[in-house]
Specification:
The structure is a homodimer. By secondary structure, the first copy, chain A, is of the alpha+beta class. The first copy, chain A, contains 18 helices and 24 strands. Chain A folds into four domains: about 190 residues, no CATH class; about 200 residues, no CATH class; about 100 residues, Immunoglobulin-like (Sandwich); about 110 residues, no CATH class. The longest helix of chain A has 24 residues.
């Protein structure tokens, strides 16, 4: 088996700086708010199994997943530092979950109290396996964060039961989840417990998917659903149109796809002889990142089906780009990065994190976007029917509330995405102040000091009790040209050290050794492939990993009438008053003049230009001031 | 009462040239095809009233309207020249209609055989009055075209009955149609019969609309529909949110709006003291034509509700621009033109006719568009959910088949849009070869010889038995600069004669006098108001009254990657092989190079340009060869 990177777990990583602040807000604001939402919407009381026919607010088929993600987030948060109040709430919630488990191990409130006769009759749509996967992830996170194994044992029992129900043996259902997720949960459960059958079950779910005769057809027939007419409409919706190993293009519901690909990457890393699966995963990676991904790291172009559509179809205003899908892309990218040790994966991970993921939560950690458009037009503001889920202001919560707790668990575990180890190598993927301890068997600590992503300089300091020979692999982001490196003040040529996106410093390190990495980050224009219909004649602005956008609050309305001349200088400036302090980007633009045009809707002349000062803010920070128009892809002239 | 223009009826006008050909195809192809469709879909047999509960294919609430429009079209066609076969089919159909009339005069198949208990219980949605209006228009057209008054008498009986049911008297329903149309039919019935009560009823329907307490609410309450939840969602959907006289912006379903405005213009012309109504109609006209109309004369920006949205919201790809709505705009423009004798109205009429209307029918007269987008992208071709009704190829027929027979009746009566008279004035609105006879009490004939809209020269010849003093008012289109005029070869200065868009030649005319009008028609670029989001940085091409578009069949795919340099020469060329002969427009454009770009979806450089030859065809002719991408608004650089 190849020698993959091993991500340094989040609890060994202390995050400061940019991400540290997001993580603190996540803990201080987001986690308590979400607990309140879980309680107020009935998701917690539902676990008491007291709902009866005729009662209002029947427990929904995927409510456990929201509770699970919150517990998972709390598990990570407690792994970072203690918080007795949060821990007590989580313990109490876990008690309820444990009591909701049925004697045979089954655990799903809806199919226990609302439709008990329908257990496992519709795994295509009913989310039982999806919820199970989230609960497994929660169980492992809570165990690792607190040492408490109550939920872990509950979920082992449930996993054992699922392992009895599903599989290729006699009397077993040859099914697999309609919404993938359990693959990720089972691999984590395997890694936490060492029980190989959980890995085997994950592998089974990945490999059985899409086999003929098609399980979802068989199941529909058994339900008497001969029409087999459903929301997803075809098996591509949940990536079961053909076996994954034969897939070459990302199809269907984007979150489902991301979870499947991430879970399959886990399975491929943990098992042998997976050439066909790797071939598929790499083809899918290229398809997603080279043809179906927004510049923000958003994925899923269509509202209907929240799904992938076709190559280069990346409409801005009607983008779906669900927060969960970008989070799923981070999961997948992080796993591909461990498997391949290639900075190209880290680039996508960073792109999604700083843009399409972070836009999903307000800067105060209290409100959320489900849909992340790249353009807000007057039609968006009027509430166009073609993008019913798009909001111009973040929301407190959603009926389908997958995104908020997904953000919470990612933010709480973000340290786990920053570093990896392999043999005598330490890999740095993300730059943010803070430190990672216990590297290389506990011998080495590395601390970062940086204002990244605002500043281009990152100071790294090695601490070790004794001189230690190892390779420090520092990511040189794909967006960066002219990176510079110095060790103890002495420049070293980056080009000579560069390998697949990482500068590899192999030497004997001494306590207090200093590395200075400089990643020049001028504001740059980004152009989409010419086949992206909506971006013709437009440029996006990017500085470092941050994609920028124009907002009405800074630039007035009718943003489409603004152009950025091809040769206009782009200046970055620290703006302490904008959303708590961001680097804003400024340029002299032009705006179509209205004066003298008269009332005509159509005219022989386009009208003159009026100079205007443009201010762009990081995309993640949009919609944190006043609602209004927004535009990532700016017209050029 | 002001002295309005009086349109010369179509049967006095012989159309040759461009429109003559369309009219012949309409008669030869479209009318027989539509009869077959009416028969095959059960719309004719339904008139026999033999449908019984349990039978398939129940007669729909608006089937009569399709039959009516076909009879109306046949009436016009027979007014132009005899056709015994068509006439026999129409006579037989009229027999069926007459037999379907109930003893009290009521006439609607659905509410006779399917839901008899629901007669007049939901005039908001049930289209009874709409169908009645179409049957009235058919009755008048057939009577005027053939002298046969059977249908006219049927419809007078029905109108008399409706006049009993609706009104402000005791025991009457204070209702009005949910889908306007009957206003137009009643005014025609009044003009054909001289019965003032039909005009009064039309006026009542126009003026009662939107009064409080709101009839549609009262009616919903009486039906027990307390939710009052319906497709249209609010009274603006059918323009009854406030009385018409108080309306200032075009709201709701575009076809309904156009029919109402046209009918109200008729009422305003026929009645006195209508200042408030005129103020509203003029404000609505400005709103539509200066803020809510496509460059093709299409109206209705949204698929959902087939409706007007908000100022400057004119998306190209997702345009609805229903064929019927452009036809309705022609109706309204023609009436405003008679009322105001201003070429601005004729300009809009001509724009809609040559573009948004004519695109609704294939050049062979056999297939139809319901929706007329201004851009076909790969998403359109993939069948995007956001524009479910948009087709990339014209269709044989539609379940809701309003557009095909609407086209048929307009094409058959088109001569009626070309000329007007008033006192000793003859007005020429449309240029096309052919002649108009019997002007000024039968003393004058005018004949046009022209290849307009392809050629800029129009030769007009006056025929009169004796010298006659009259004013010949020749429209100088708003798109035209530098029009030239000569009488008997002698130039006369247009500027001196120009008044509200017409050059007025007042003189004593002798038999054989020749007028030569030259309307220079270089290809010109048209620019939308900067507030039209989707057209930023784009130009449309127009030559004379024709709007042009790029089609994939001529220009390859990925039309969005093409730009037309601001200074590129635009050349018009006669292309006999393109859709039977059209003037094509040619330019040297540029296309984004793909070579050397690599696979990256996002890059720091937009890539180079490759020169490309652009060929644009008239918008009306699109989708007559191979299906593919199409684009009206072309990127400029």
């Amino acid at each position: 088996m190849p020698n993959h990177l091993k991500a340094v777990p989040h609890h060994k990583v202390e995050l400061g700086g940019f991400w540290g602040e997001r993580q603190q807000i996540n803990r201080r604001e987001t986690l308590p708010i979400q607990y309140r939402q879980l309680a107020e919407t009935g998701r917690l009381d539902a676990l008491n199994l007291t709902w009866k026919l005729g009662d209002p607010n029947p427990p929904h088929i995927f409510w456990e997943s929201d509770v699970a993600k919150w517990i998972e987030a709390v598990g990570y948060a407690l792994g970072n530092s203690p918080d007795p109040k949060l821990e007590a709430l989580a313990d109490e919630t876990i008690e309820r979950i444990a009591k909701a488990q049925q004697p045979d191990g089954y655990l799903n409130v809806h199919f226990t109290v609302v439709e008990p006769e329908k257990r496992w009759t519709n795994v295509r749509d009913a989310h039982e396996l999806y919820c199970a996967g989230h609960l497994m992830e929660a169980a492992v996170a809570y165990y690792e964060g607190t040492g408490k194994d109550k939920l872990l044992r509950v979920m082992q029992r449930y996993a054992d039961y699922i392992d009895e129900v599903f599989g290729r043996g006699p009397g077993q259902k040859r099914g697999y989840p309609g919404h993938e997720e359990i693959e990720l949960g089972l691999v984590k459960l395997y890694r936490a417990t060492g029980e190989e059958r959980y890995l085997d079950l994950a592998r089974y779910f990945v490999e059985e998917r899409g086999a003929e005769p098609h399980y979802f057809d068989i199941e529909a027939h058994e339900r008497g659903d001969e029409q087999n007419a459903w929301y997803g409409r075809n098996h591509a919706y949940n990536q079961s149109h053909v076996p994954l190993a034969e897939q070459r293009a990302a199809e269907g519901h984007a979150v489902r796809a991301m979870y499947l690909y991430a879970g399959a990457t886990d399975v491929a890393m943990e098992t042998a002889d997976q050439e066909a699966l790797w071939t598929a995963l790499e083809a899918l990676w290229h398809n997603v990142t080279e043809r179906r991904m927004y510049v923000t790291g958003g994925v899923g172009s269509a509202h209907h089906g929240e799904r992938f559509t076709f190559d280069y179809h990346l409409p801005n205003e009607t983008a779906y780009a669900e927060t969960c899908a970008s989070i799923g892309l981070v999961f997948w990218a992080q796993r591909m990065l461990q498997a391949h040790a290639d900075g190209a994966y880290a680039d996508v991970m960073e792109r999604a994190l700083y843009n399409g993921v972070l836009s999903g939560v307000s800067l105060d950690g209290q409100q959320f976007f489900y849909v992340n458009p790249l353009e807000v037009t007057p039609a968006t503001i009027h509430g166009s029917q073609t993008m019913p889920s798009t909001k111009v202001e973040r929301q407190d919560w959603f009926g389908c509330a997958c995104c908020p707790p997904n953000l919470a668990r990612l933010m709480a575990s973000l340290g786990g995405y920053a570093y990896s180890e392999r043999d005598d190598e330490v890999w740095v993927h993300l730059y943010t102040s803070g430190s990672v301890a216990g590297l290389l068997g506990g011998r080495v600590t590395i601390r970062q000091d940086t204002r990244y992503p605002w500043d281009e300089e990152i100071a790294l300091q090695v601490s070790c009790d004794e001189a230690t020979r190892f390779t420090l692999a520092l990511r040189i982001p794909g967006w960066c040209r002219g990176a510079r490196l110095a060790v103890n003040g002495k420049p070293v040529p980056v080009a000579d050290l560069l390998e697949a996106g990482y500068a590899k410093l192999s030497r004997t390190w001494h306590d207090g050794d200093q590395v200075t990495l400089t990643l020049p980050m001028p504001v740059e224009r980004v152009y989409a492939h010419p086949a992206v219909w909506e971006n013709a004649g437009r440029a996006a602005l990017q500085r470092g990993p941050l994609v920028y956008c124009l907002e009405e609050v800074d630039n007035g309305d009718t943003l489409a009438s603004i152009v950025l001349p091809r040769d206009a200088a782009l200046e970055a400036r620290w703006s302490p008053d904008v959303t708590g302090g961001v680097m804003t980007v400024h340029a002299q633009g032009l705006r179509r003049a209205l004066a003298g045009r008269g009332r005509a809707l159509y005219a022989r002349q386009p009208g003159g230009w009026v100079p205007c000062s443009l201010t762009a803010v990081p995309y993640y920070a949009w919609a944190n001031r006043e609602p209004g128009e927004m535009m990532v892809w700016i017209h050029e002239c």
